[in-house]
Write a structure and sequence with these properties.
By secondary structure, this protein is an alpha+beta fold. The protein is 28% helix and 10% strand. It binds zinc ion.
Length: 409
């Protein structure tokens, strides 16, 4: 059973560690059970900012240190760029393939001005021709602007805009709070997220959008609300309701959307919501974390021939044995400790992905900037993001570009 769970988890691959981790300032206790955390650790699933898997492949999954409290792991730095610039000297190298790809992609503040395409796999790839979701729209607000992760493939960005409009118009939902999508050129990130590398993944908060426009500071600090009850096995009816069911159902109903990741307790609540149409439930996949937000993933766009398609999802609604197996895992008693403590064997951490680990096209996507960074060990000069990143969709009003927000901290 456990193997089945693990293989299912790794097949759907990749959660969004940035939001799984209780962010500094979120003030929320990490609500996993200890068993669940340990089980996830054993599965090598992304629980923390620093220990997330680098790839969907089990062989490349990195396990969090035993006993690590995921809630205690430091959350995002103020700025990707700042983090890249302050990287330890020991990581500098004159060899292009030794520089971690996350440092190169994390330092990119503008998209590659190329034809849009998603390149490679969801957890090992990059994005050309990315566009920014405007930070404000008629029915959405982007959060955590300092991360500069409101970039995606144009098809995903267009879908999110349509989705936001429809939940407001048809579901009575006040609007979407949009979390991380991707970096301007996708790729691995300095913090969090094994996936989100192709501009085809987006995190949407379960918390409804407030009726007023949030300030930049509020977008950094506003705490997301966990949908779980104190047992961590069911939803908290004080915060979970029909609205959340409606918005997940709507996004899972779009043909472009291939998967929506939610915590198993949330999947259970969706299964029990009594929807006559069950087809959309097949796309809603249980996974660790995902109780502050859900993760939306679209399939490879037709303009992206080198985008690696994911395995097909099982054909049923996933409300039966699969969900039962998840709950067995969630409620499994912790393994008894050996009577005599064994000295821990030192584990050599897997090296981070480099450009050589990504599809060759990703070199073109980072272009000369990667060469500059490789030669100097520091981030290249910034390029201004396009206008799309710095104006609202609703009014066209000019806003400070995200780069400014990122550099201000
Ligand atoms: Zn995610």
């Amino acid at each position: 059973m456990r193997d089945r769970i693990l293989s299912l988890g790794l097949a759907i691959a990749t959660c969004c560690a940035a939001a799984v981790v209780a962010r500094a300032g979120d003030g929320a206790a990490f609500p996993w059970t200890d068993q669940a955390a340990k089980a996830a650790a054993a599965a090598g699933t992304a629980q923390s900012e620093t220990a997330g898997p680098q790839s969907e492949a089990p062989a490349n999954a990195r396990k969090p240190k035993s006993g690590t409290n995921p809630a205690a792991v430091k959350a995002e730095p103020a700025s990707n760029l700042a983090a890249a610039k302050s990287a330890p000297a020991t990581e500098k190298s004159s060899k292009p393939d030794v520089v971690p790809a996350k440092k190169i992609f994390g330092a990119m503040t503008a998209p590659a001005q190329m034809k849009a395409r998603a390149i490679g796999a969801y957890s090992r790839g990059c994005l050309a021709g990315g566009t920014a979701l405007p930070i404000d729209g008629p029915a959405w607000q982007a959060m955590r602007l300092s991360r500069n992760r409101n970039w995606g493939h144009p098809k995903l960005v267009a879908l999110l805009e349509k989705y936001a409009g429809e939940v407001k118009a048809k579901d009575g939902w006040p609007g979407l709070l949009v979390g991380d999508i991707s970096q301007p050129r996708g790729g691995p990130m300095l913090t969090g997220h094994a996936s989100h590398q192709l501009g085809l993944d987006a995190d949407i908060w379960f918390t409804p959008m407030p009726s007023r426009r949030l300030s930049k500071t509020e977008r950094e600090n506003l705490a997301a609300t966990s949908m779980l009850a104190s047992d961590n096995l069911s939803v908290n009816k004080k915060v979970w309701g029909e609205g959340q069911v409606n918005i997940v159902r709507r996004v899972a109903s779009y043909p472009e959307v291939e998967r929506v990741l939610v915590h198993p307790a949330i999947k259970k609540a969706l299964c029990e919501a009594g929807s006559k149409d069950r087809g959309w439930l097949a796309k809603v996949r249980p996974y660790w974390g995902h109780f502050y937000h859900f993760h939306v993933r679209i399939g490879c766009p037709s303009d992206s021939p080198t985008c690696t398609k994911q395995a097909a999802i099982p054909g049923d609604d996933g409300c039966g044995k699969e969900l039962d197996d998840w709950f067995k895992l969630l409620t499994a008693p912790p393994k008894p400790k050996p009577p005599v403590a064994q000295p821990a064997r030192p584990v050599k951490p897997k090296p981070p992905l480099t450009l050589a680990d990504l599809p060759a096209e990703c070199r073109t996507v980072v272009g000369d900037d990667a060469a500059v960074m490789t030669a100097t060990g520091t981030a290249p000069a910034n390029k201004s993001p396009p206008a799309a990143a710095s104006k609202t969709a609703a009014t066209g009003e000019k806003k400070p570009p995200n780069k400014k927000a990122a550099d201000a901290k």
